[in-house]
Amino acid sequence: MLSFDSSLENALETSSTESFWVLKLYYNAEGSSDFIGVSDKDRTDGSDIYYGIVASWGGLSQSLDFFNFTTSTLSMSINLINTDNTINGGRFSDLLSSNNFANRKWELFQNTSRHDTYDTSARMIGCGVISGNISYTDRALSLKLLDKTSKYNKQIPSSVVDIATYPNAPEKNINKPIPIAYGDFYQKTNIGTIPTSFFDRYKQFYKSAYPAIITDQWDVGVEASEAKADSQALHTLDSENIYFYKQGYYPTLTGTIGISSNPTITLAGSSASVYVPLSSSGQGSGTVNGSGSVSNPSNAVDGDFQSKSSMVANGSTSANSDSAISYAIPKVPKLGQYSDINIITKYGTSTNLANEVDDYFEIGNVAVLSITSDSETEVGIPGIFTSDKRDAFNFEGNVTYKLYSDAENETVEIYETGAKVDFNIEGIESHQISEQYEETVTGGFSIQTQFEKEEEVITETIVRTRTKNIETPSEIDYIYYSGKGRKYHSDIASRTSYNTTDFYENPVYIIEDIIRQELSLGDSEIDKTLFDASSGHLGDIFNDSVGDIKFAFSQNKFINSKDLINRISKQILSWVFISGDGKFKIRTLRRTGDYSSADRTIDFEDIFFNSVSKTSLNGVRNDIVINYNYDYGQNQFIASVNPTADSTSTGTTVNGYNQTLTLKMDADIIDETTATKLAEAYREIFKDRKVVINFECLRAKYNDLEIGDIIKFSNWDSSIKIYGDAMGTDYYIISNITKTPNTSSIKAIKVS
């Protein structure tokens, strides 16, 4: 909602007060004071002159798409009188020879006959750029006024691998984007503490891996190749968790790896290793000789350091008794030039085994001595494979773990164990990116509604909010890393509970960071109050604590900034738009029981009621599938959630639609809980048709309203029922508004 000054508000409350608009049309550089002022009649405001050459004002219009969470451009058309001697002794079109209005600034102000300064920020109801499509006759001239979308919208990521900055970059990487990283791709938090001797460098124990683009094939100064993880410093970059991708695996680079300056990764050498999880499926376990025992063998190979397998050898029953487990090593593609294979193991409580003859532990026929509790070992097992098999990475087969005991009971607990294959690579291999440039998908067709002047979009049955490729695939050299993304901007941290040492997971502030860092805009172009309010409302729509709503992704492909912001907006049921005051604003939908106040109460006596209707049946979705956890090496989502479809809306009762209607959406989320909460939020909102009210405001007193504002009504005519129910304290969101100097036309959708 705009904020008119009290003098204007008081004047607009009086029905007899004349209200009017004045418009500034700039023709020189942004920030200049060179403008031509126009209005419906000659007006002066100090030294400012507004020529009375406006023949007709078109409506100042903007709308939001309730179900797709997008907004239209704020726009207006005006017609100017262009006859001779109407301005500066000639026609307005004569000014075009010396003044260029195309793509220059315009500002529109609401005023009344109670004279105050016309062009204050508190009276601005529209601003933006003048379209270059200026047409005229000898009697009239037409202008199209647009908001600042075209100025603010650009291709991002804004930083690229340009040849001037990175002269040694691989040729295929030149002019490719340097990725943007948000969220947490670091250690898994549900597997216990990751041991630090051997296990903490393998991707299996990390949430995901961001891509980093190679920017320097070899830097003489640092004696290494270089890759950029982002253009901004990141929260966490760990030199132990740098990978390359090949055939479904993320082998860890183990050469000389470093972080030369965050976010630059350096790498030298050709060594790498890959962790290969073992399988207990179909493998034997139990005693080999005597009364030993094995419990929970699968716990040792489940990737979790909280669950364990136990092996017991009871030497008091039989001499040289033992217990054993056999695990399978799965097929591994040839990833490079083989150098070694080992078994790494994390132990729990274990007996001190020191006698190589009759008290010891064995992995793959190799004795492991002196195992102490909570220790880790690395045991080489190349001897169980022939040289030909090693060279071919042919490790399929079993590796057996045995515990021997002669004189006393012996115990070994295993929390995690797996194979580690070491090898050499010749270089980072090119990786094909199937989407080089992204844009939002627009589908369906439109129809004219019975009561509305605008068209309503009929969408396809399955709606995808991700994007499609519009260029051919490209080969790009990447490495990958597990870490944490961008840290909070100081301007956001200064007004929130977040610190500049925290990393972004809150999607509302990810959008604000894109506006600040990628579009280079600041406080004067952002409605900070609304962004902070939307952050709080995330908890309402997700039905969860705001701190538990976690987004994480890399934007490593070029995308239009508006498309990226819209993509995130859809995932948080929000609308981002440029307001009449020129600022980026955001409104987040809440659940029906969360509304308790309105931005404005509209008096029924101030409006002309047009119609009540409902949103299209085609907008109903009661079965929601969220694809999440995007793998940047595989170029695909690897997980999905699908909560139970809403039973009422799929049924045949008065509130049912006798059909299961599916919505599928791709999400910038790797957290299952957040993905599930998003699916439930969509199901809650989309399972019902919404009540729509259309009305005209008969005075300009409501011209401070805009899309996304929450309204309620007073003095409603009790004879007008809303589908059989009386109008109570119901809350509506403004989805369409068209303003004129004295009136406004509003479409609002019930949200409570």
Task: Describe, in plain words, how this protein is organized in 3D.
- There is one protein chain.
- The protein has about 750 residues and is mainly beta.
- Among the domains are: about 5-150, no CATH class; about 275-425, Sandwich (Jelly Rolls).
- Helix content is about 10%, strand content about 40%.
- Strands 1, 2, 3, 4, 5, 8, 9, 10, 11 and 12 form a 10-stranded mixed β-sheet that branches.
- Helix 5 runs antiparallel to helix 6 (about 530-540) and helix 5 packs antiparallel against helix 7.
- The two termini are about 20 Å apart.
- Taking all Cα atoms into account, the compactness measure Rg is 33 Å
Number of strands: 50
The biggest sheet amounts to: 10 strands, mixed
Structure annotation, total helices: 9
Unreliable residue stretches:
441-474
Estimate the mean pLDDT confidence: 89
CATH architecture of the domain at 277-424: Sandwich
Our estimate of the beta-strand percent is: 35-45%
Distance between the termini: 19 Å
Helix amount: 10-25%
The backbone outline, from C-alpha atoms, is: elongated
Content-based structural category: mainly beta
Examine the coordinates and then state which fold CATH places here, giving the name of the CATH topology of the domain at 277-424: Jelly Rolls
CATH top level class name of the domain at 277-424 = Mainly Beta
